Amino acid sequence: MPLWWALAYRDAPARLILSFKNHDRVDLCRALADPLARAIRAAQPRESALPPPILVPVPGRAAGFRRRGYHPVVSLLRAAGQRPRHLLSWAREPGDQLGLSIAERAHNLRHAMRARPVPARLGSPSLTHDANLASVWVVDDVCTTGATLREAIRALSAQGVVAAGALVLARAPRRGASNPSRN
């Protein structure tokens, strides 16, 4: 799965994202949307004849929406000048991912999402990689292990949608990987 990200999820970017998501700092949305917009542009082929990408946000959790009053990924996409396509929803509420291993995260999210039937107005019921169709990208705020993104792509695939890859605002360093800023 191709993965494009704008920021490394550590230090200042991690603090800004957490403030935006968990501490009512909606004023940070514009500043965080700019790097996401650059990642979206970078992920697209250079040919201008292709239609704009179809950006499918990972669905927010109901508890998070009640707490915040907004869905961070949708807000970021809109602030980046994009139109999110809400094709995914939760089939069941997975447990909290915090502290889980890679395998535990994958198990926790297994078949947790479902994709809505794809409207014909998106170009094709299958949205394949046909050069005449827009590419479909799953979008999330942070990628830690990739389990959420893989589950989203699986759910889309079950409806015949072939995702080109995933776009995230920030990518967490892999566990055990060295931190280049500290070497």
TrEMBL record:
<comment type="similarity">
    <text>Belongs to the ComF/GntX family.</text>
</comment>
<feature type="domain" description="Phosphoribosyltransferase">
    <location>
        <begin position="126"/>
        <end position="175"/>
    </location>
</feature>
<protein>
    <submittedName>
        <fullName>ComF family protein</fullName>
    </submittedName>
</protein>
<dbReference type="InterPro" id="IPR051910">
    <property type="entry name" value="ComF/GntX_DNA_util-trans"/>
</dbReference>
<dbReference type="Pfam" id="PF00156">
    <property type="entry name" value="Pribosyltran"/>
</dbReference>
<dbReference type="InterPro" id="IPR000836">
    <property type="entry name" value="PRTase_dom"/>
</dbReference>
<dbReference type="InterPro" id="IPR029057">
    <property type="entry name" value="PRTase-like"/>
</dbReference>
